[in-house]
């Protein structure tokens, strides 16, 4: 933690929301060489920092989006190698989340329009002397080549104004002004817990053609998040425009799903050889439409740059079914695209918010694919801060920008006054719990316990006298495919059943967490809440015939997986579940609430084959239907694109929403056969359950203990065979498809599938 004494400095003019700020300074003499130099920096807006003309880091869009009211994160950079006797420290700012648009109704600048920098450069000399260069009133500010910038709408860069002169000593720029102190409580400055955003990969176009409109269309072959870097030359003043979209419709760019987001970058040519990279925006796109290009873009002129929080890929999966492999790849790309500083619902339209329900559903999957622990622990700090200021309520989105959208605003949300809602607010409990399971570090539980407990306590006040959580607004089994496209809330599953089941699950987890942390009183309390909720559920929702109110796939899935039914009732629930799945023709019948659990519910009640039939269904709606339609990311709706190739008429149609991709968690554990038996894979359950005609699967995970790998095949000479690799210090329980079990230790094991002999 740095001891901050710098001020937030704000340019005296706003310079089109993209000011440059600079300070020239000389190293203090008489202290010997520089031993080390560290720059600490943050901003209102997003910043790029330079020392003596060099970027101090390869990251973009820092300091990202946090619950700024309580946490403004700063970055720290070792800049020792960049210092010179006379140095220039410079910052380029963009609107980012602070000053730009947020939400779907056109509002901007919810946090403030005062873009500014807070920076502290600490230079330690050989003799121990420390020189500090702070952001203060001695800095100057001026215009950049960026004429407009917004995360949703895109960026305009005038190549005629691009120059590095401001980063060199002696610069006295025309039109430059002073700066003044902005408002910032230095106590809100806090170091990043998660990784910064960086460029992850580059993709070349796979095809380029002329659309009926006469404009050039480019296909990058993958729905991705980032921007296009453009290399172009032509007459000075020529304007090249790039619009971005995820899909095509009627042979043109399909921009309707973006709603009001313009996703348009404009580049004004300098007359020389230009390279433009719009780093103060990002787009969710597979296609770009190019207009105004002098001649035709040549190979290497257009490069898609993938941008994301810098997550380490740790989990791998492949099997004999290529459609499933594509589904898995879609979930991977969905994670990359939607882990851009905040875990977002989607990355392309005028939304891109930290919707809590989406990440509540998807954390177990994401935590296997990537090391998301620091990223989500960072976000959970925001969740806790927002929650604390809202009497324990966990908002729909974190950071909660919707709280600034007032009812009489033109931008009023269509949702009623928010209160805790099942699945969404349960993120407070389910996300830390999933991180504990995946990584085995109880610190996340220590840090989040108060937030977890406060969520359940808040919901306790919302239950009706019956003990059911059947009051207030609920998203319920959001986007159940049988709900009308314009009203995704009208799911078949009863809202009270879903919410009460979620309360039971959360109370159970908080009780278990309290036990782990040695909080006996809390443990007793939440155990009691769970028991009471379970009893109310049984009394009011479960009939004598085992039917559960509303008789929808999701209610059985939740009751089974959350442990609300047992014994004969559980068996009946499993039977009814499979009947409904069968009646539905093995097409999916679940939304956000039920989808992460339906395959587990089938599997654990003895209906593995039905789970595979559901997973392998290709007719709409199903997991594989989008794959057959060429999807390269997980869609928001089961039918974001209709079978005739047109875009779903609903107002809300994204092609990059990870929530429904949560089935990959089941694929890792059940098809792949790699699951934690103890948190963090200190002990591994190796229990592949082949089915669906799949003949092999390979699953591997870089755990905190080392690499775990499981691969099986039915193609070998001995029928089923299984290979397992466990790292030092890790043991495993192997359960073969025939049910036989054996314990294994670290090392490589080859097991053949005939009844195992110990
Ligand atoms: C949509 C979001 C998100 C969902 C909410 C309820 O606007 O895209 O996925 O959580 O609604």
UniProtKB/TrEMBL annotation:
Pfam families listed in its UniProt record: Bac_rhamnosid (PF05592), Bac_rhamnosid6H (PF17389), Bac_rhamnosid_C (PF17390), Bac_rhamnosid_N (PF08531)
Question: In Gene Ontology terms, what is a biological process of this protein?
Answer: carbohydrate metabolic process
Assigned EC number: 3.2.1.40
Which SUPFAM superfamilies does the entry link to? Six-hairpin glycosidases (SSF48208)
Annotated Alpha-L-rhamnosidase concanavalin-like domain ranges read 211-307
Tell me which residues make up the Alpha-L-rhamnosidase C-terminal domain. Answer: 673-746
Does this UniProt record's set of keywords contain Phosphoprotein?
A: no
Domain annotation Bacterial alpha-L-rhamnosidase N-terminal: ranges: 33-199
- Report the superkingdom from the record: Bacteria
Start and end of every Alpha-L-rhamnosidase six-hairpin glycosidase domain?
313-670
InterPro entries (alphabetical): 6-hairpin_glycosidase_sf, 6hp_glycosidase-like_sf, Alpha_rhamnosid, Bac_rhamnosid6H, Bac_rhamnosid_C, Bac_rhamnosid_N, Rhamnosid_concanavalin
Alphabetized UniProt keyword annotations:
Hydrolase
Task: State the reactions this protein catalyses.
Answer: Hydrolysis of terminal non-reducing alpha-L-rhamnose residues in alpha-L-rhamnosides
Molecular function (GO) terms for this protein are:
alpha-L-rhamnosidase activity
User: Cross-referenced PANTHER family, in alphabetical order?
Assistant: ALPHA-RHAMNOSIDASE (EUROFUNG), ALPHA-RHAMNOSIDASE (EUROFUNG)-RELATED
Name the record gives this protein = alpha-L-rhamnosidase
Q: What is the lineage of its organism?
A: Bacteria, Bacillati, Actinomycetota, Actinomycetes, Propionibacteriales
């Amino acid at each position: 933690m740095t001891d901050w004494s710098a001020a937030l400095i704000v340019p005296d003019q706003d310079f089109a929301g993209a000011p440059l700020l600079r300070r020239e300074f000389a190293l203090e003499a008489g202290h010997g060489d520089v031993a080390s130099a560290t720059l600490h920096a943050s901003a209102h807006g997003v910043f790029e920092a330079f020392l003596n003309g060099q970027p101090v880091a390869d990251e973009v869009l820092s300091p990202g989006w946090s619950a700024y009211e309580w946490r403004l994160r700063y970055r720290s950079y070792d800049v020792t190698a960049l210092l010179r006797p006379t140095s220039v420290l410079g910052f380029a700012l963009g609107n980012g989340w602070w000053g730009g648009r947020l939400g779907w109704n056109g509002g901007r600048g919810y946090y403030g329009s005062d873009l500014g920098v807070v920076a502290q450069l600490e230079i330690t000399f050989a003799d121990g002397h420390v020189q500090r260069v702070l952001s203060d009133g001695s800095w100057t500010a001026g215009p950049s080549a960026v004429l407009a910038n917004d995360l949703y709408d895109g960026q305009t860069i005038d190549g005629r104004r691009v120059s590095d002169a401001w980063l060199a000593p002696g610069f006295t720029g025309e039109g430059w002004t002073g700066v003044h102190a902005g408002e910032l409580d230095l106590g809100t400055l806090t170091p990043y817990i998660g990784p910064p955003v960086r460029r992850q990969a580059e993709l070349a176009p796979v095809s380029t053609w002329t659309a009926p409109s006469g404009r050039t269309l480019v296909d990058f072959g993958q729905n991705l998040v980032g921007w296009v870097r453009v290399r172009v030359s032509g007459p000075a003043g020529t304007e090249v425009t790039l619009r971005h979209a995820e899909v095509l419709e009627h042979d043109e760019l399909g921009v309707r799903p973006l709603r009001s987001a313009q996703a348009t970058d404009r580049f004004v040519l300098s007359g020389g050889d230009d390279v433009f990279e719009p780093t103060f925006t990002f787009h969710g796109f597979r296609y770009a439409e190019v207009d105004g290009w002098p001649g035709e873009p040549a190979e290497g002129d257009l490069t898609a740059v993938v941008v994301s929080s810098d997550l380490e890929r740790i989990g791998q999966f492949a099997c004999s079914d290529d459609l499933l492999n594509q589904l898995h790849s879609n979930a991977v790309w969905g994670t990359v695209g939607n882990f851009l500083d905040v875990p977002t619902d989607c990355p392309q339209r005028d939304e891109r918010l930290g919707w809590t329900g989406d990440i509540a559903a998807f954390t177990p999957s994401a935590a296997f694919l990537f090391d998301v622990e620091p990223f989500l622990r960072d976000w959970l700090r925001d969740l806790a801060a927002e929650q604390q200021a809202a009497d324990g309520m966990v908002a729909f989105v974190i950071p909660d920008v919707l709280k600034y959208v007032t009812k009489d605003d033109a931008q009023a949300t269509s949702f009623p006054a928010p209160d805790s809602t099942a699945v969404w607010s349960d993120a407070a409990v389910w996300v830390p719990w999933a991180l504990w399971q995946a990584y085995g570090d109880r610190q996340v539980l220590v840090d989040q316990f108060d937030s977890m407990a406060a969520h359940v306590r808040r919901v306790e006040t919302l239950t009706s006298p019956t003990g059911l959580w059947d009051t207030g607004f609920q998203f319920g089994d959001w986007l159940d495919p049988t709900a009308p496209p314009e009203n995704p809330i009208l799911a078949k599953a009863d809202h009270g059943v879903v919410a009460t089941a979620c309360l039971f699950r959360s109370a159970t987890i908080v009780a278990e967490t309290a036990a782990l942390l040695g909080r006996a009183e809390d443990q007793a309390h939440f155990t009691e809440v769970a028991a009471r909720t379970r009893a109310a559920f049984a009394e009011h929702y479960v009939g004598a015939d085992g039917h559960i109110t509303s008789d929808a796939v999701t209610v059985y899935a939740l009751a089974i997986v959350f442990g609300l039914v047992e014994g004969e009732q559980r068996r009946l629930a499993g039977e009814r579940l499979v009947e409904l799945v069968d009646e539905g023709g093995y097409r999916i019948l679940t939304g956000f609430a039920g989808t992460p659990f339906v395959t587990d519910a089938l599997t654990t009640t003895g209906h593995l084959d039905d789970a595979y039939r559901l997973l392998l269904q290709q007719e709409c709606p199903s997991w594989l239907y989008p794959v057959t339609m060429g999807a390269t990311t997980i869609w928001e709706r089961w039918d974001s694109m209709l079978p005739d190739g047109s875009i779903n008429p609903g107002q809300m149609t994204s092609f990059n929403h990870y929530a429904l991709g949560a089935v990959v968690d089941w694929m890792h554990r059940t098809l792949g056969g790699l699951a934690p038996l103890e948190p963090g894979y200190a002990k591994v359950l190796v229990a592949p359950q082949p089915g669906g005609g799949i003949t092999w699967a390979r699953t591997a995970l870089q755990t905190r203990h080392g690499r775990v790998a499981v691969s099986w095949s039915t193609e070998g000479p001995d029928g089923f065979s299984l290979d397992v690799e466990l790292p030092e210090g890790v043991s495993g329980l192997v359960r073969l498809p025939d049910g036989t079990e054996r314990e294994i230790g670290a090392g490589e094991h080859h097991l053949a599938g005939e009844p195992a002999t110990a």
